[in-house]
């Protein structure tokens, strides 16, 4: 798989944090990722699933936060995460018009595991985020179904994550290039303990001509575009014990990784980060009080750096792993990998 590192577009600086073994969000213990890709007959779309742990998420919720950098988006479930600070379903990524099908799939899957949902206990907050892949995919076809969402959930696995034009990223573009799914991770040492933070992005943002590589070069995919009207969803996972406010603070630092590449979060861009920790899960109908371990803010800068670095590299990996693709109207979205090979330093 082609990555920013394999193309020489990323090199660790003196202060860079080390990566996990797969340089992926799945380096966080228990986190798994799966894809469902739909191609053909004008379709280039799909679903990507992120599973925070292998258990029953409704019964054992992960603590999480959301940061809305620019809210031009149609996601589901973010309001309750912001209010309660927990995530109780897998996170599904898809295209804008696939949100309803993915929401239904998450609800049905949760009810199958917990038949009391909505009757003897609370309802379930399905978490779905989206980007508009309409430049390549025929989004009006409403191709994503409940069964496709189930297929992505059933495909989740640890280890290496397929990147680029796969799953929800099949029809996505960024900075005028073909883009999609990308991921990266960073290891953090605090005192005598080691932790991991991983970032997975659905990259579909940035004006053509605005991309800035880590070495300062500005690849040109063709003509400079007008308004920035794309989106990016960033999912950050960690096993670092963080409080609710700290999770949102870490989520916000993903914006630094996005901005380092030249994006300015335009009016029509939906830029959203979800951040969760697998430490100290919240038990449904649990005890009246729960003890939560929390990092001292004096040491939180390492998590901020990890979020920015991993997100920046994940975006570059999404661009590098995606092949050149022609959109619905005949416009070519070139491959950043092809550009890099032709402009090797």
TrEMBL record:
Per its UniProt record, what Pfam families does this chain match?
Answer: Peptidase_S58 (PF03576)
Q: Which domain of life is it from?
A: Bacteria
InterPro entries for the chain: ArgJ-like_dom_sf, Peptidase_S58_DmpA
Family indicated by similarity: Belongs to the peptidase S58 family.
What name does the UniProt record give this protein? P1 family peptidase
The scientific name of the source species is Daeguia caeni
